[in-house]
Amino acid sequence: MGIYSYELYHYYEVENILRLGSCGGYTKDLKMFDLVLVDHTYTESNYALSMNNENCHYIGASPILNEKIEHTSKTLSIPIVKANTLCGEVFDRYMTNMEQMKARLPKEYNLTGAEMEAFSLFYNAHLLGKQASCLLTVVDSYYYNEEATANQRQESLDNMIKLGLESAIIT
Known about the structure:
Distance between the termini: 27 Å
CATH architecture: 3-Layer(aba) Sandwich
Helix content: 25-40%
Structural class: alpha/beta
Number of domains: 1
Number of helices: 7
Number of strands: 7
Largest sheet: 5 strands, mixed, barrel
Strand content: 25-35%
CATH class: Alpha Beta
Order of helices and strands: HEEHEHEHEHEEHH
């Protein structure tokens, strides 16, 4: 995501990027197939340090894009949950000790779910004066110990895609 978003912003003069994807839920607040609009994301990686010599691990989405998505969700009656996420480097299910990883996360950020691309997207937008947002569908839950099947994943993305596309065209 870091390379692609940087090149789209820098070389192709793209102004806005909305990432659509999947995420895992960490708390009771996120249920399977909920739509999550990422407000802020936290990472343990050193992306910002490598990219711009900045010790940054927490960054927000574009308020302009998020407001547009929130408005569109109300217009279409598609409920969303605005939340903060962990932007991780590996799938949760592959971790040898999920509890240990969760214990070291900053509590003040109220990280309710996890995905793997938002931080570099948001950071590149910040760095280059552009806009970025991230809309996700919960496809597994650590809290509820649930995981969507491949078929359920495919079928559960319709509302997220509709909301993303409608948000892009509604002025």
